[in-house]
Design a protein that fits this description.
Pfam families: GldC-like. This protein has 108 residues and is an alpha+beta fold. It contains two helices and five strands. The chain folds into two domains: 58 residues, no CATH class; 48 residues. Helix content is 37%, strand content 33%. Helix 1 packs antiparallel against helix 2. The strands form two sheets. The protein has a three-stranded antiparallel beta sheet with strand order 1-2-3, with no helix packed on it. A two-stranded antiparallel ribbon has the order 4-5.
């Protein structure tokens, strides 16, 4: 059995607002990469609910955040499809992502 790690280092200002996010996933070739936002979800099997950590830096522009959310929504559709083989539901998630892109003004 092998173990691996993914690490996040968050620099906070005096009001506990993220100023800098640096992450590493050495097995994936990522070491000391900076990011402006992180949305992390984990499944709590005991309570049967998703737990979340949502962080973004002061420098994360709103337009980039909208694009980030759009891409996360598209990824959720793809992940759902791989996890369940429910192509029709996955397509609905992706359709919503496109609707979101249109409504948020980021669709090109």
């Amino acid at each position: 059995m092998k173990e691996t790690e993914i690490n996040f280092n968050i620099t906070l200002d005096e009001n506990h607002i993220p100023e800098k996010i640096v992450w590493a996933a050495p097995d994936g070739g990522v070491v000391g990469a900076e990011s402006k936002a992180v949305l992390l979800s984990v499944w709590d099997d005991k309570t049967k609910e998703a737990l979340r950590i949502d962080l973004w830096t002061k420098e994360m522009p709103v337009e980039e955040m909208k694009r980030f959310f759009h891409q996360v929504l598209m990824s959720l559709g793809n992940s759902y499809q791989r996890a369940t083989d429910e192509d029709d539901v996955a397509e609905e998630i992706r359709k919503f992502a496109e609707y979101f892109a249109d409504r948020s003004g980021i669709k090109m």
